[in-house]
């Protein structure tokens, strides 16, 4: 079969890790007799540098015409400490999510047994952890009205959610829970926020359609504690955009392997797949960045395209690279392999 | 000397732990020849039950006429899962902060060497951690306009900050840093939020007046990771209300001893002192709750009243109770002492 893949490698280590994912996909194409047609497109700081726009219209078009989007990373330090920058790489990512209707960000967090000892948490705390985080991605304070008063003295951000926005991701989360351990934890701040109260009300209502799934509530401050105290209590976590950003990043480090975590953003049509690590500017171009998260993102993409055997083959190859210690310095500091070498191993193994 | 103390014991385990703090204060009064005059006042769920109002005017008056406020905890599960409750205990706490102008919440997080092995984190990760979190407490999304559309379909929360609100706590944080390891980390989401960009701009400006203090920035999602990966990198953390709520709760569990963490809320006039654990409904009335955080809150209160020797005496007594294992089941599960017994020990030792 033939698939059109939009490749948005982006900034920092984005291009070098995405290159390894493409190697893996090419190997899959060979073995399983598919054809992946890649179209590169610009996003982020590199897009600003070349076009002045963090998300050129052409990129949106390319994504919309593709079967899936493979994303690298965006962001560059030169924008971070400049509060008055008019254009920022992140705007490209946010606009892309909105333009493609990617309202649901899915982040699996798993304690890979082989990597547990890399975790900052004790083995007995994280052992058995297997969480699927459903983060709403196109609403909330990320997309509310922003305003700075003319005299520069008062800034405001609006946060809003509609029943419709809450419902569509809630149904996806409940369906996921039905295929897992049948438990959902809604993370909110319903003791303070009106939007959180609407989440709680809407989700409680929808839960009635999924009688086999248990629904739990946790305030976000408590969730931030529970994630460290007892992460294996969670199955599916459902939450709004900003809380999802914080809680999923917190969760990403407890397994000891942020360089292995992939994510999917889905919604209306085409899905987007990306490693959850960022652009990691310090490592750019050094051939040391861990490509496994990007490679596993490609596997998630294949699953989304209903190529389950193909996805499993990649996951299996990643498992093998961990087993043999053919990994980058973040996992294997004593005898690190380069980014490209790890990518080559995966492709060869496939 | 004579001091008027407003005692707002509140809900859940609030009353029983506050009782132990009062025992300690009474012992201090004896030894150092002071007089503490306590006035009890209602707040939270118990205030709703008795008056229909989570913060009766009388309580505000009592606090305003006092030299300090000793606070227990508020909250009751019967309100948490009822998104349509018109009156909630938390409103009492929020209104109290606003009425007393308590714009600055200070939470020290320390790895007590004796308790490190209780931590979910590995010893080498948390060892040496000593953080002072400055959380803005009367602004941001907590106090913005809240709205639910008439048809119940759309909820909104407004978030706003002014240069003035940011400046006053920033100066306090820099002064604290000058007395510590001279480093401030501003936690924000300046790549997305207008309010965060105003924080970054204002704090950068103010930093020029404190040339001996190093200023760093961290996005809140990254901060949530760093708190687990490498907490000892932090000295003073400065942040807005909601991020402070999440990050300080996350930080509170890494030391392995949430039952020992006190906090101070200061601002215009009278200060308020409270344990950071909540009302812990499951333990209410069982005489098992750890009173040390409340007792250490009393010590923080004494420091704020310029009674430094007295505060040190309490801290010393707490250290002794840890050394001798005269502690509740959360710290000492094999041979737990009751809440009252721990309080008695501290008072006797003083
Ligand atoms: C880069 C930033 C805008 C983005 C977000 O906050 O959503 C990132 O942190 C993420 O989680 O994908
Ligand atoms: C009870 C709640 C409103 C409160 C807050 O979010 O500020 C609490 O979590 C705290 O941190 O003191």
From TrEMBL, chains A, B:
Cross-referenced InterPro entries? IsoCit/isopropylmalate_DH_CS (IPR019818), IsoPropMal-DH-like_dom (IPR024084), Isopropylmalate_DH (IPR004429)
Q: What does this protein do?
A: Catalyzes the oxidation of 3-carboxy-2-hydroxy-4-methylpentanoate (3-isopropylmalate) to 3-carboxy-4-methyl-2-oxopentanoate. The product decarboxylates to 4-methyl-2 oxopentanoate.
Name its GO BP terms in alphabetical order: L-leucine biosynthetic process
Tell me where in this chain the Isopropylmalate dehydrogenase-like domain is found: 4-346
Q: In which pathway does it act?
A: Amino-acid biosynthesis; L-leucine biosynthesis; L-leucine from 3-methyl-2-oxobutanoate: step 3/4
Q: Which reaction does it catalyse?
A: (2R,3S)-3-isopropylmalate + NAD(+) = 4-methyl-2-oxopentanoate + CO2 + NADH
Keywords in alphabetical order: Amino-acid biosynthesis, Branched-chain amino acid biosynthesis, Cytoplasm, Leucine biosynthesis, Magnesium, Manganese, Metal-binding, NAD, Oxidoreductase
Q: Describe the family membership recorded for this protein in Swiss-Prot or TrEMBL.
A: Belongs to the isocitrate and isopropylmalate dehydrogenases family. LeuB type 1 subfamily.
Task: Name the site position(s) for Important for catalysis.
Answer: 142, 189
> So what EC number does this one have?
1.1.1.85
- PANTHER family, sorted: 3-ISOPROPYLMALATE DEHYDROGENASE (PTHR42979:SF1)
The record describes how the cofactor is bound as: Binds 1 Mg(2+) or Mn(2+) ion per subunit.
Its chief place of residence is cytoplasm
* Keyword Transport in record: no
Q: Where does Mg(2+) bind?
A: 221, 245, 249
Q: Which domain of life is it from?
A: Bacteria
The answer to whether UniProt assigns keyword Ribosomal protein to this entry is no
Any idea which GO molecular function terms this record carries?
3-isopropylmalate dehydrogenase activity; magnesium ion binding; NAD binding
Under the heading Gene3D superfamilies, the entry gives: Isopropylmalate Dehydrogenase
Q: What is this protein called?
A: 3-isopropylmalate dehydrogenase
Cofactor list: Mn(2+); Mg(2+)
Q: Which SMART domains match?
A: Iso_dh (SM01329)
Identify which top EC class this enzyme belongs to.
Answer: oxidoreductase
Q: Write down the PROSITE patterns for this protein, in alphabetical order.
A: IDH_IMDH (PS00470)
Localization per record: Cytoplasm
Report the source organism: Leeuwenhoekiella aequorea
């Amino acid at each position: 079969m033939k698939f059109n893949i939009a490749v948005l490698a982006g900034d920092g280590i984005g291009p070098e890790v995405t290159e390894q994912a493409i190697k893996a996909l090419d190997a899959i194409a060979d073995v399983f007799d598919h054809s992946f047609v890649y179209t590169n497109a610009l996003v982020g700081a590199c897009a600003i540098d070349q076009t002045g726009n963090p998300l050129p219209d052409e990129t949106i078009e390319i994504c919309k015409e593709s079967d899936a989007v493979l994303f690298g990373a965006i962001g560059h330090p030169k924008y971070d400490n400049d509060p008055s920058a008019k254009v920022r790489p992140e705007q490209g990512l946010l606009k892309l999510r909105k333009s493609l209707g990617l309202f649901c960000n899915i982040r699996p967090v798993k304690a890979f047994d082989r990597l547990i000892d890399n975790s900052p948490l004790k083995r007995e705390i994280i052992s058995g952890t297997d969480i699927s985080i459903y983060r709403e991605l196109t609403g909330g304070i990320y997309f509310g009205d922003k305003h700075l008063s003319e005299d520069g003295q008062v800034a405001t951000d609006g946060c809003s959610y509609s029943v419709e926005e809450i419902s569509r991701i809630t149904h996806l989360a409940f369906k996921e829970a039905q295929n897992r351990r049948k438990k959902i934890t809604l993370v909110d701040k319903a003791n303070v926020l009106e939007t959180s109260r609407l989440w709680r009300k809407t989700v409680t209502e929808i839960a009635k359609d999924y009688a086999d799934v248990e629904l739990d509530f946790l305030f976000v401050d408590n969730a931030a504690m529970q994630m460290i105290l007892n992460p294996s209590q969670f199955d599916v976590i459902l939450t709004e955009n900003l809380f999802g950003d914080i809680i999923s990043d917190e969760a990403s480090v407890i397994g000891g392997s942020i360089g292995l975590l992939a994510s999917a953003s889905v919604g209306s049509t085409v899905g987007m797949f990306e490693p959850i690590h960022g652009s990691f500017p310090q490592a750019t171009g050094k051939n040391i960045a861990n490509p496994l998260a990007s490679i596993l993102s490609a596997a998630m993409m294949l699953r989304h395209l209903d190529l389950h055997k193909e996805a499993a083959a990649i996951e299996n190859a990643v498992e093998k690279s961990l087993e043999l210690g053919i990994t980058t310095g973040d996992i294997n500091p004593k005898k690190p392999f380069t980014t490209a070498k790890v990518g080559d191993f995966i492709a060869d193994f496939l």
